[in-house]
Amino acid sequence: MWSVxxxxxxxxALVFALVLAAGFAALSQWQLARSVSTGTVVSRDTxxxxxxxxxxxxxxxxxxxxxxxxxxxxxxxVPDDYLLVSDRLNGGRTGYWVVGHFAANVDGGxxxxxxxxLGWAPNRAEAASALxxxxxxxxxxxxxxxxxxxxxxxxQDGDFEHGKLSTISAGSMIxxxxxxxxxxxxxxxxVDSAHASGLAIIDSPAPSTAVELNLLNVxxxxxxxxxxxxxxxxxxRLVKDAWEREQEEAQSAETAEVN
Length: 259
Hints:
With about 260 residues, the chain is α/β, with parallel strands linked by helices. The chain has 2 domains: about 1-35 and about 215-240; about 50-190, no CATH class. The chain has helices at about 1-5, 10-35, 50-55, 125-135, 170-175, 215-259, and strands at about 50, 70-90, 95-105, 110-120, 145-150, 185-190. Strand 2 and strand 3 form a beta hairpin.
């Protein structure tokens, strides 16, 4: 068989197959590099408390630099503007959040609305009791709240018009809040690092810095390796078929001579 493989056309075919396999191997290497680069976590200091105004602005989406950042903000609670949000996980348990309407000071100008999650309860009854207690003992005047700032979760498909919430969305809150905000609203929400009476602290850990591989890119890389191997196998199979065909023709010719 290898005598057939040394013929010019099969040598040319082998060169072509090797070039093709090398191209597939290069694509596989590129996909592996992509799987790591897309999973790279940019290190930033999220644990130093900074002013909310320094990383976020009203009426603007939450930037990558602001997401999960510990911040502090000064303002005042809007009276009797608290809501319940369902389906909130805390330490692996599902329950409710109590969220408040906070009028945050913005550069000494008009206040902007900010959603603040004040704590978690394991059931609706306990959450509602804490909400009523907050409404009856509100702190008037200027206060400073510290917590972790998160991006808006987006609108929900549900009966939010009647106060049934399962996501944190500034757009939804605007439709439910009793008071308006002259300077607009923040695009994210704040998870209070403390907790209101009758509620548990909401689990809001620092963002993970672990690098995770993009498994889809790893799968594509494996596919390119398979394609490279197939290119070489195809050349081998064609050479072998040509050799077997020549052997059959030679045997047929010998048989014809004998007869």
